[in-house]
Amino acid sequence: MSKRNNWENKQSARERLRAERERQAKKDRTRRQLIVGGAVVAVLAVGAGIVVAVSQLGKDGKSGLNASWEAASKKELVKPANTGGDNGTEILIGKKDAKHTLDLYQDMRCPICSVFEQSVGDTIDKDVKDGKYKVSYHVATFLDRNFGGSGSKNALSALGAALNVSPEAFSAYNKALYSKANHPNETKDDYAKDDVLLKVANEVPALKGNAEFEKNVKDGTFDKWALTVSDEFDKAKDVTGTPTLKMNGKKLTAEDGKNVPITPDQYTKAIDAALKS
């Protein structure tokens, strides 16, 4: 790849991030968005108090669930294939013998997660294919609590249906959900609609026309699992928002020591430095 193309890719990522931040600044005055280390931290004005949603992860129990998700929380847990751990909350993508692990914390409605995946996703895919490290996904649903709705939970459940097909289908579907063409404004609850999720899935060959996948999405087979995965995210230490990256348990940042590496070059430098330490 030419130096010019590298520069253009960097500029494109920066422009997308800048545009996202500018859009966030125009939100309703009762809802401020703070970008902290590349993460979205929603601050909601509730009555006379201010609730910083990310700092309250895991403290609201099931109070934010609507009736269907409340019902799902009481059902028997069904774990997708290709998961690990007692409750199937371990989502590892990559070669089992890879010596290093990248922990990736995300929310499917998160706009910065979308920008990150669009910019750095291909680099991660190549590194995983080369066995440089494996990726452990930790998926949240706090933006459902921040903005209302169930898009984060429903998309996570659909990702479980994709993982049930194969790890490769999970990765491809994750990428499609975060793509510029598909990812909705986080205040819109598009991913709460099964038909939207299935339409996006048509971009993934392993999922297009896959009757079992479609049935699992429509039936909410992995809804309880999605809630369980989200609960595990809420227990994570030193995670104040999304996206958050950790290499072998240590937070991964750009050279400024604060922000998530948002360009391929920033990311590769951060990864290489982490693997040498």
- Which CATH architecture would you pick? 3-Layer(aba) Sandwich
Low-confidence spans: pLDDT under 50, at least 5 residues?
1-10, 25-63
Number of strands: 8
User: What average pLDDT do the residues reach?
Assistant: 84
- Structural class by SSE content: alpha+beta
Helix content, binned percent: 40-55%
- Classify the fold: give the CATH topology: Glutaredoxin
Major sheet summary line: 5 strands, mixed
Number of helices: 10
3D shape = globular
The CATH superfamily title: Glutaredoxin
CATH class: Alpha Beta
Tell me the radius of gyration: 18 Å
Biggest sheet strand line-up: 4-6-5-7-8
Q: List the secondary-structure elements in sequence, H or E.
A: HEEEHEEHEHHHHHHEEH
What does this structure look like?
The chain is of the alpha+beta class and 277 residues long. It has one domain (3-276): 3-Layer(aba) Sandwich (Glutaredoxin). It is 44% helix and 15% strand. It is built from 10 helices and 8 strands. The strands form 2 sheets. Strands 4-6-5-7-8 form a 5-stranded mixed β-sheet, with helices on both faces. A 3-stranded antiparallel β-sheet has the order 1-2-3. α5 (151-165) packs antiparallel against α8 and α5 crosses α9. The longest helix is centred in the first third of the chain and has 23 residues, at 3-25. The protein starts with a helix and ends with a helix. This is Disulfide bond formation protein DsbA. Keywords: Membrane, Transmembrane, Transmembrane helix.
